[in-house]
Structures are given as C-alpha cells and as structure tokens.
Amino acid sequence: QNLLLIDTDPGVDDALALLMAYQHAAVVGLSIAAGNVGLAHTVTNALRLVELVGAETPVFAGCDTPLVLPAADAAFVHGVDGFGDAGLPLPERKAEAEHAALALIRLTQEQPGELTLVALGPLTNLALALRLDPTLPQRVPRLVVMGGAVTGRGNTSVPAEFNIGFDPESAHIVFSTWPQFELVDWEATMRHGIALQRFESWLAADDDRARCYERISQKIRGFMQERRRPGLVLADALAMAVALQPDCVIRAEHRHVAVELNGSLTRGATIVDWDGRNGLPANARIVLEVDQQRFEAMIVAALGAA
Ligand code: BDR
Ligand code: CA
Asked: Would you call 223 helix, strand, or coil by DSSP?
C-alpha cells in the first residue's frame, strides 16, 4: 500500500488533497506548516480533517514563520481561519508535542524506503529537517512538491507561486539538496481546472466529506469565479493525484530547477533550466500534464460522490 507522509498548511485545496490521501492511501503523519494562514489555524484544520475521516494520524506542528523573512498569508483566498470561515467546530484532538521537522526525520527512520513524502505548503519544515539530517532523502523514495511557476506565471507575485514565494530560502534548501523530486507547479494546476458546476454536483453527495467540503470551499469558489479562473483550480489536489497514482502523469520533463532569492521583482521565482545552460543535473521531474479523468475520479471518490 501507498504510505504517505504529508507536509501541509490547510488550506482549502490542502483539505481536498488530504481527503484524497485518506481515500486512496494510508497516511502515517501530518506535519504542519504556516502558509495559507498562521500555524494555529493550519494545525486546527489538520486535526479537523483527521477527525472528519475518523483516522488516528498524528499531527505535528512545525514552524510558525518562514526561515528568514516574514511573509503575507493567503487568508484572502482561504478565509481568516484557512477553512473559508465556515464556522466549523473546534476539534477535540490535539497536536503531538514533537516538532514537525523532528517528526519528519523520525518517521522516515522508522520506515526507511517506504514513505512517499508529499509537500503541499511552504517548505519550511522540510528545509529544517534537511539541515538537521542531510541523509533524509536517502530514506525517502519519492518527494512530490506542489510549488513553483515553471515559465514565470506565478500567483503571488508576477513570477512566484505562493508556496515558494512564502519561504524562498526553505525552497532553496530543498531544491538544492534533494537529489530528485517531482514538481507539480501552479501553471500545471491552471491547465487542470474543474468546471465549477461539475464540482458543485459532487459536493451535493450524501456524505460528511462532501458536506464539509461544500462549506469550507464556498469562499474559494466565489473567489475563483471573480478571478475568472479556468474552473476551480486545486493545486494541492493535483499534486496529491500525482503522489497517489504516478502513472496518471501523461507528460513530464526532467530539468534543473533553482529558486531566486534576491531579485527585487523575482524573489521566490522558480528558475527552470529548460535548455540545459547551467550544466547542472536535473533535480526535478516537472509534471506538465495529468490524465484529467483520473484526477477527477480520485476527487469524486474522496468526496463520497462516486
Ligand atoms: C498553493 O498555495 C496555497 O494557497 C495552496 O494551498 C497551494 O498549496 C498554490 O499556489
Ligand atoms: Ca497548500
């Protein structure tokens, strides 16, 4: 069975990715970052999700700021509480005492070679874990990252995507030390929008997961309509689809990807060496296209709408 360790900042699209993970795999731990909203909210939301699906997964709180510079959250998209300000009850469960970065190290030591690591938020916890234990990648056969904008069309500044733009130094640490990872970027997300009506028909399913997602996604659905996005774009769900079913990837290219740390206009941009100019080996498999039907089928099942 596919065993997942998920680093995430829930977040409305993170929540859908988590529902997909619970439907299609086993989740051994959730390490939580600040990002979409502050850490107290992202931890609470992760605990809510674990309760919703009736799981026992340990939740580990991680870093509450980026490694170096402060950054703005995305509450205007995800709501002040990160779950669309839907007024969900507080969870009864609590987070573990262990820090998320230490949990990433320990859990991969306990199951070396077994876990797929899926990173759905800013890479702060993972960067810290890598600095504490540079041998971490040797124990993790797959790292799937949602992040970046591979041809320079970002969503948080002109060229930067949110997860990388929120904490560029952490992304730099991960991208420059992890030998091979899979990257699902914002531009791929934009090519895999889901028609709003279609998505809303799934939300009408007679299932607690659909009912919960209907509530927490109301705000983001309105936001996407205002911005005339190509349907509902769900970045973390797409990354999770790749993690869950690697063979749903139709097109991908191996390239070297680096993170810009300094540019006054380009801080947080992902610089892809499309033409092999820098002579560095490819560190990323950039996902360009996924089987849309399979992607949607994974979501339908995760919402109980099948
Ligand atoms: C990414 O940023 C967050 O707002 C989403 O949860 C996703 O991880 C998309 O750029
Ligand atoms: Ca996220």
From this structure: helix
Residues in the chain: 306
ipTM: 0.99
- Which two structure tokens, joined as six digits, stand for 72? 């703005």
Ligand 1 atom at minimal distance to the Cα of residue 146: 8
Say whether pTM exceeds 0.95. Answer: yes
Query: Count of H helices and E strands in the chain?
Result: 13, 10
The verdict on the CB of residue 242 being under 6 Å from ligand 1 is: no
| Ligand 1 proximity of 235 Cβ (cutoff 6 Å) | yes
Return the residue matching tokens 């060496």: 273
Identify the CA nearest to 79 among candidates 10, 172, 139: 10
CA 236–ligand 1 middle distance (angstroms): 7
Per-residue pLDDT of 114-147, as tens digits, reads 999 999 999 999 999 999 999 999 999 999 999 9
The pair of structure tokens assigned to 151 is: 């041809």
Per DSSP (E only), the strands in the chain are: 3-8, 26-32, 59-61, 115-119, 142-146, 181-184, 249-255, 257-259, 270-272, 284-290
pLDDT per residue as tens digits for the range 93-104: 999 999 999 999
